[in-house]
Protein backbone atom coordinates (compact mmCIF):
# COMPACT_ATOMS: atom_id res chain seq x y z
CA UNK A 1 0.00 0.00 0.00
CA UNK A 2 1.55 3.29 -1.08
CA UNK A 3 0.69 6.38 0.96
CA UNK A 4 2.25 9.70 -0.04
CA UNK A 5 2.12 13.32 1.04
CA UNK A 6 -0.53 15.62 -0.41
CA UNK A 7 -0.15 17.12 -3.88
CA UNK A 8 -0.48 20.83 -3.14
CA UNK A 9 -2.56 22.67 -5.76
CA UNK A 10 -2.59 25.98 -3.88
CA UNK A 11 -0.48 27.80 -2.87
CA UNK A 12 1.16 27.76 -6.29
CA UNK A 13 4.94 28.27 -6.39
CA UNK A 14 4.56 30.94 -9.08
CA UNK A 15 1.73 32.73 -7.27
CA UNK A 16 1.86 35.99 -5.34
CA UNK A 17 -0.69 36.53 -2.59
CA UNK A 18 -1.76 39.60 -0.60
CA UNK A 19 -1.65 40.42 3.11
CA UNK A 20 -5.13 40.42 4.64
CA UNK A 21 -6.88 38.68 1.75
CA UNK A 22 -8.42 35.22 2.16
CA UNK A 23 -5.78 32.60 1.38
CA UNK A 24 -7.38 29.38 0.12
CA UNK A 25 -5.47 26.11 0.48
CA UNK A 26 -6.28 22.88 -1.29
CA UNK A 27 -4.66 19.68 -2.44
CA UNK A 28 -5.43 17.47 -5.42
CA UNK A 29 -6.78 14.21 -3.97
CA UNK A 30 -5.94 10.79 -5.37
CA UNK A 31 -5.96 7.30 -3.85
CA UNK A 32 -2.28 7.54 -2.83
CA UNK A 33 -2.53 11.12 -1.50
CA UNK A 34 -5.92 11.12 0.27
CA UNK A 35 -7.36 7.62 -0.11
CA UNK A 36 -9.24 5.58 0.35
CA UNK A 37 -6.79 2.92 -0.72
CA UNK A 38 -7.29 -0.77 0.06
CA UNK A 39 -4.87 -3.66 -0.11
CA UNK A 40 -4.85 -7.26 1.02
CA UNK A 41 -2.43 -10.17 1.07
CA UNK A 42 -2.75 -13.87 1.84
CA UNK A 43 -0.04 -16.25 3.00
CA UNK A 44 -0.32 -19.61 4.76
CA UNK A 45 -4.06 -19.31 5.26
CA UNK A 46 -3.82 -15.87 6.84
CA UNK A 47 -5.35 -12.89 5.05
CA UNK A 48 -4.55 -9.31 6.00
CA UNK A 49 -6.69 -6.49 4.57
CA UNK A 50 -6.21 -2.78 5.18
CA UNK A 51 -7.93 0.43 4.12
CA UNK A 52 -6.23 3.80 4.53
CA UNK A 53 -7.89 7.22 4.40
CA UNK A 54 -6.67 10.71 5.27
CA UNK A 55 -8.61 11.94 8.29
CA UNK A 56 -7.11 15.43 8.57
CA UNK A 57 -4.54 17.80 7.13
CA UNK A 58 -2.54 20.28 9.19
CA UNK A 59 -1.13 23.21 7.26
CA UNK A 60 1.91 24.88 8.89
CA UNK A 61 1.58 28.34 7.36
CA UNK A 62 5.20 29.41 7.86
CA UNK A 63 4.15 32.49 9.85
CA UNK A 64 3.91 30.72 13.20
CA UNK A 65 0.31 29.58 12.76
CA UNK A 66 -1.27 26.36 11.62
CA UNK A 67 -4.66 25.44 10.16
CA UNK A 68 -6.31 22.03 10.53
CA UNK A 69 -8.55 21.01 7.65
CA UNK A 70 -10.90 18.01 7.54
CA UNK A 71 -10.07 17.17 3.93
CA UNK A 72 -8.23 18.38 0.83
CA UNK A 73 -9.86 21.82 0.83
CA UNK A 74 -12.05 23.60 -1.70
CA UNK A 75 -10.60 24.92 -4.95
CA UNK A 76 -10.87 28.68 -5.28
CA UNK A 77 -12.82 30.06 -8.24
CA UNK A 78 -13.52 33.69 -9.08
CA UNK A 79 -17.19 33.42 -8.05
CA UNK A 80 -16.00 33.06 -4.42
CA UNK A 81 -14.76 36.65 -4.55
CA UNK A 82 -13.10 37.79 -1.31
CA UNK A 83 -14.79 35.17 0.87
CA UNK A 84 -12.82 32.84 3.11
CA UNK A 85 -12.57 29.19 2.15
CA UNK A 86 -15.43 27.18 3.66
CA UNK A 87 -13.08 24.47 4.93
CA UNK A 88 -9.38 25.31 4.54
CA UNK A 89 -8.27 28.92 4.63
CA UNK A 90 -5.96 31.41 6.30
CA UNK A 91 -5.31 35.14 6.34
CA UNK A 92 -1.69 36.30 6.42
CA UNK A 93 -1.17 39.37 8.63
CA UNK A 94 2.26 40.43 7.34
CA UNK A 95 4.27 40.12 4.15
CA UNK A 96 6.91 37.47 3.56
CA UNK A 97 9.50 40.09 2.51
CA UNK A 98 11.74 39.42 5.54
CA UNK A 99 11.60 35.62 5.15
CA UNK A 100 14.29 33.58 3.36
CA UNK A 101 13.78 34.00 -0.42
CA UNK A 102 10.95 36.44 0.47
CA UNK A 103 8.60 33.47 0.94
CA UNK A 104 6.91 31.75 3.83
CA UNK A 105 8.09 28.15 4.02
CA UNK A 106 5.08 26.01 4.86
CA UNK A 107 4.21 22.35 4.94
CA UNK A 108 1.09 20.25 4.89
CA UNK A 109 0.97 17.07 6.97
CA UNK A 110 -1.79 14.57 6.38
CA UNK A 111 -2.80 12.02 9.00
CA UNK A 112 -3.75 8.66 7.54
CA UNK A 113 -5.95 6.27 9.50
CA UNK A 114 -5.33 2.66 8.50
CA UNK A 115 -8.01 0.14 9.49
CA UNK A 116 -6.89 -3.48 9.24
CA UNK A 117 -8.37 -6.96 9.53
CA UNK A 118 -6.57 -10.29 9.91
CA UNK A 119 -8.44 -13.52 9.24
CA UNK A 120 -7.00 -16.85 10.36
CA UNK A 121 -9.69 -19.02 11.91
CA UNK A 122 -11.18 -15.84 13.47
CA UNK A 123 -11.04 -12.15 12.69
CA UNK A 124 -8.87 -9.62 14.45
CA UNK A 125 -9.21 -5.92 13.70
CA UNK A 126 -7.42 -2.74 14.58
CA UNK A 127 -6.26 0.61 13.34
CA UNK A 128 -3.26 2.87 13.47
CA UNK A 129 -2.29 6.29 12.16
CA UNK A 130 0.67 7.48 10.16
CA UNK A 131 1.58 10.85 8.65
CA UNK A 132 2.95 12.15 5.36
CA UNK A 133 4.10 15.71 4.62
CA UNK A 134 4.67 18.00 1.65
CA UNK A 135 6.60 21.28 1.78
CA UNK A 136 5.54 24.41 -0.10
CA UNK A 137 6.27 28.15 -0.16
CA UNK A 138 4.11 31.26 -0.52
CA UNK A 139 5.07 34.78 -1.54
CA UNK A 140 2.90 37.28 0.37
CA UNK A 141 3.05 40.94 -0.61
CA UNK A 142 1.61 44.01 1.02
CA UNK A 143 -0.50 46.35 -1.09
CA UNK A 144 -0.26 50.05 -0.28
CA UNK A 145 -2.68 52.54 -1.77
CA UNK A 146 -2.24 56.29 -1.89
CA UNK A 147 -5.23 58.60 -2.06
CA UNK A 148 -4.04 61.69 -3.90
CA UNK A 149 -6.55 64.52 -4.21
Considering the chains and any ligands shown, give keywords for the structure:
six-stranded mixed beta sheet; elongated; 149 residues; mainly beta
In short:
Helix content is 0%, strand content 50%. It is mainly beta and 149 residues long. The chain starts with 6 loop residues before the first strand and ends in an 8-residue tail after the last strand.
Descriptive report:
The chain has strands at 7-10, 16-18, 23-24, 26-28, 37-43, 46-60, 66-69, 89-90, 104-119, 123-141. The chain contains no helices and ten strands. With 149 residues, the chain is mainly β. The model has no long low-confidence stretch (mean pLDDT 93). The radius of gyration is 20 Å and the shape is elongated.
Rg computed from alpha carbons, rounded to a whole number of angstroms: 20 Å
The number of helical elements comes to: 0
Strand content: over 45%
Helix content: under 10%
DSSP strand count: 10
Structural class: mainly beta
Q: For the record, give the distance between the C-alpha atoms at the N and C termini, rounded to a whole number.
A: 65 Å
Q: Which blocks of ≥5 consecutive residues have pLDDT under 50? A: none
What about the largest sheet? 6 strands, mixed
Please state the overall shape, judged from the principal axes of the Cα atoms. elongated
Report the order of strands and helices.
EEEEEEEEEE
Mean pLDDT: 93
